[in-house]
Specification:
flat, 0% strand, mainly alpha
Length: 134
């Protein structure tokens, strides 16, 4: 019974059907990435304006007007970097929330937990404790 058997092929087809992702979910993911990026840019713009008024953080002149890329002047480079960090952070938060709401469930190819081995280990530990007492 090798990999070319009829049964293996039928199981393989079933696995392929299960693993296929609906294309509309790829579109939703793309829209989320774009929204996070645009939100990050607007957050960075707000942050730079509020920072100029409130003085939360020192921004050196070289960061706002870099000499190596004059076309990124006016804080555009800082906006891009802060926007990227915001995108990264928001995606991380979304991933953690998704992992809590939809935890990974073991599939047919995963190894099951050996409950008997756990019980044996606990029994051995209790026996060792008893031996130490006497």
């Amino acid at each position: 019974m090798g990999r070319d058997s009829y049964r293996f092929r039928s199981l393989d087809k079933e696995r392929e059907k299960k693993e296929r992702l609906d294309p509309k979910w790829r579109g939703v993911g793309l829209i989320l990435i774009v929204l996070f990026a645009v939100g990050g840019y607007f957050f960075a713009d707000w942050f730079l304006r509020a920072n100029a008024v409130n003085g939360w953080m020192y921004m050196p002149h070289a960061a706002l007007y870099p000499k190596f890329a004059p076309f990124l002047g006016g804080g555009l480079l800082v906006k891009i970097i802060v926007g990227f960090l915001f995108t990264l952070l928001s995606y991380t938060v979304l991933s953690v929330i998704y992992a809590m709401v939809f935890p990974i469930r073991p599939g047919e190819t995963d190894v099951s937990i050996d409950r008997k081995a756990e019980k044996r280990k606990k029994r051995r530990e209790r026996a060792e404790k008893r031996k130490r007492r006497y």
